[in-house]
Design brief:
homodimer; 346 residues; alpha/beta; Isopropylmalate Dehydrogenase; 2 domains; 10-stranded mixed β-sheet; 11 helices; 12 strands; globular; binds 3-isopropylmalic acid; 3-isopropylmalate dehydrogenase activity (chains A, B); IsoCit/isopropylmalate_DH_CS (chains A, B); NAD (chains A, B)
Chain lengths: 346, 346
């Protein structure tokens, strides 16, 4: 009999609430012969305040033993900006070499978008996850004085760029439209820009069926609101990916339904799946948070581990639930979770 | 009698067409006693192909003698990406210390927006223009090999951050809502982020009437499409400003009406005014381009030089023209210019 050994990190704020629903749906969808084992970890603001720790080497050793990680949200106003982001979220992405940060955007029927008209939105962003301006390189001299200088160094390697570009081409090849767009700013960031552009063009030769184009990141934000239908797969650097995926989430129904995977494609380390939204302390503990983004992250997790049919059942359930939602009275976090669990089980 | 001594750089593509209309409106609005002198310069793709030059020291000495610079657009597909951007546009911003890159966004009545509902949009972005990832610092080793490493260094100084933050606070103080938002990514880019945040908080103490807040750049793109009314003045770094001002232009009527100023507030060097749109080679030479963004850039130019009443007349004319436009048959570039010139003269 098969097993799925999951590390669960509810985290802060609404993280607890949405993860509970994600697990509910996961249990409901898994075939009888797959044994689900979960172990919960208390990372986040409370642990930081209690122990000063964010993520230790021993923690990483523990997490490493699981097949995958499901995360709710990490972050709290009581912790200085950057501490949990650098000390937990980014540390985990770097330690487990999550170089493919996968963020699908699909505007589902019945879902409200801030865009006028009836935009067609169905694309996926492959964001590089271990390089660029996220490496923590840089520093400060003369801190706090009128002569302070602070630098941030974006580090880009042929190795790092090529592997994520290859992943994106493979994904584009597998989709009906077979289109891949590189988003960068190669007219200004010419060093990194040339590397990205050259690698992209080189790998493109191996994928003659994939249509390619290039768009500067500033122009990409324009197209995301005026013509999102032009995008199929986007590949981009870590920081540009961070920015455009929030915008992509906003136009395709909001961060209430945006899922993401921090993926190590070769499975040397467990991959981590999380909703794009944060811990939303303002609505935490009220049973108001929409668990759909977490549930869709569970679908990405299942697909990563090869449970494609179950992933599709979850996606269909969320789709059906959202399509009906306009007619439904407002439901709590757990009511939505119950409804989704019932659908995938049925 | 007073004079206005203007350097005019039509540039590439539609640049020629829109600048002609900008000058037409400028001539029509200027009081009789202001003598307008213009000198045209041939920077851009043609000059680059003919001479290999983009902007020489002698050119800078010439340009320096003018009160201001009006630019159409620079850029052509025949020139490799980065050559004119780094060699002309950015070189000029850096040489003339254009540290305030001013980009107002106002959704005018009658203007189409990709957003649903009737969003209220009236804010201005103060983008830093001489630092951040735009400095050209960084480099490449092992170029073209599987071991290539390319870096981009974002350079941020207390001097550079403080002067642009001060400029933004002064602008916020002068507006009815008196609100200033800092946009950065201080949870990840912690070195530069701390510098920006500390300087911002320090200067805020001198402006007790200005309400302040902070938003990460990724979240800012969400608010720009879901709640643009929350913004009054935004201050941000060079690259974040590049990205969010394209999005801001898109939601507030498109780059057809987005103006910008590359400003040296102390007037040690002439400031440069240009539409946010590029050279649009696909529609060049057809008399189709909307000159409104250039005309509004002329208004920014006039306000920078203290001709506030004339700037307001131009803005009112563009507003009135756009409000009427829905009812008008499509007009050519010069027909729109004529209409605006007639309005400001009347
Ligand atoms: C919280 C932060 C470190 C993170 C990022 O910048 O990657 C978040 O914005 C995201 O997109 O997952
Ligand atoms: C053309 C390019 C160098 C420029 C920039 O990145 O600043 C443009 O996008 C702009 O916003 O003025």
């Amino acid at each position: 009999s098969r097993s799925l050994n999951l590390a669960v990190i509810p985290g802060d704020g609404i993280g607890q609430e949405v993860v509970a629903e994600g697990l509910k749906v996961l249990s409901a969808v898994l075939p009888q012969d797959v044994k689900l084992e979960t172990k919960e970890y208390d990372f986040g603001a409370r642990r930081y305040h209690a122990t000063g720790e964010t993520l230790t080497d021993a923690d990483l050793d523990e997490l490493k033993r699981h097949d995958a990680i499901l995360l709710g949200a990490i972050g709290d106003p009581s912790v200085p900006s950057g501490v949990l982001e650098r000390g937990f979220l980014l540390k985990l992405r770097f330690a487990f070499d999550h170089h493919v940060n996968l963020r699908p955007s699909k505007l589902l029927p019945g879902v409200a978008t801030p865009l006028a008209g009836e935009p067609q939105i169905d694309f996926v962003v492959v964001r590089e996850g271990t390089e660029g301006p996220y490496t923590g390189n840089g520093g400060t001299i003369r801190k706090g004085t009128p002569h302070e200088v602070a630098t941030e160094v974006s580090v880009n390697t042929a190795f790092g760029v090529e592997r994520v570009v290859r992943d994106a081409f493979a994904r584009a090849q597998a989709r009906p439209r077979k289109k891949l767009t590189l988003v960068h700013k190669n007219n200004v960031l010419t060093f990194a820009g040339h590397l990205w552009t050259n690698v992209f063009n080189k790998v493109a030769e191996e994928y003659p069926e994939v249509t390619t184009d290039y768009i500067h990141v500033d122009a990409a934000t324009i197209y995301l609101v005026t013509d999102p239908a032009r995008f199929d797969v986007i590949v981009t650097d870590n920081l540009f990916g961070d920015i455009i995926t929030d915008l992509a989430a906003a136009v395709s129904g909001g961060i209430g339904v945006a899922a993401s995977g921090n993926i190590n494609p070769g499975r040397e380390f467990p991959s981590m799946f999380e909703p794009v939204h944060g811990s939303a302390p303002d609505i935490a503990g009220q049973g108001k948070a929409d668990p759909s983004a977490t549930v869709l992250s569970v679908a990405l997790l299942l697909r990563h581990l090869g449970h494609d049919a179950e992933a599709a059942r979850i996606e269909d359930a969320v789709s059906a639930d959202l399509a009906e939602r306009g007619g439904l009275p407002a439901r709590s976090t757990s009511e939505i979770g119950d409804a989704l669990a019932a659908r995938v089980a049925g």
